[in-house]
Amino acid sequence: MLLIKSFLFCGIVCMIAQIILDNTKLTPGHITSIFVVFGAFLDSFSFYDKIIKTVGGGALLPITSFGHSLIHGALAKANNYGIMGILMGMFDLTATGITSAIIFAFVFTLIFKPKN
Amino acid sequence: MKQQKYELIAKEHQAKNPKLKNATIAFLIGGLIGMLGEGLIELLCNIFHISRNNAGTIMIVIVIFLASLSTALGFFDKLVTKCKCGLLIPITGFAHSMTSAALDYKKEGPIYGIGSNIFKLAGSVILYGIVAAWFFGMIRYLLGGRI
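^ Those are the sequences you sent over. The predicted structure of the assembly is below.
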């Protein structure tokens, strides 16, 4: 059941992005940035957490979840450390994604040649 | 008269409603990636008996690995031109933008090539993500919200 919900949620997010891309002058860079901001906005009222609970893994994959994990880690640290916690916990949950993306990108760049 | 005829012929050969087609492809491809993520989580949970949160982290690493590798091998770009947002909006797009930027500037050397250009496309996502998360986080914190 979670599989179907994941399919629907991730598909609908991508479809919304594609419709925006086709009907406006925004580039993919604009759209991904907007979606990240939107994800952070949704989680400022813990709304994205509920989506993840009902949808499962499909909600972790769209770029909106990047914004959600940034603010989620920040607020979790803020519970213990006060206002400085927002700065301390910003990367707590996204560290795996960013670090692995950097390392894989670097290693594959060293190994492979650009194809043009 | 000739102009009108030309326009008629051009109209006939235009793809029919590419917007609808693009949206459907993005829906299907994005959905498949979401389903792959959920499937991987359930597989990892059942095989290694780890918690759902850990499985989610490992799943993201696997997806990023696959996207980076296929970008470096050269066939991810072709897929992106076909599927567009279906591949750009999931985390695959993030990994793809970093690897392709690094590969493009490889010939300019390790510092001014790879080092300064690797975040060329992904940087905006990180910048606006952090600024937005900080801004909304401050609002939520000052309002007294707790997670």
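Chain B is about 80% helix and 0% strand. The mean pLDDT of chain B is 88.

Shout if you want it in another format.
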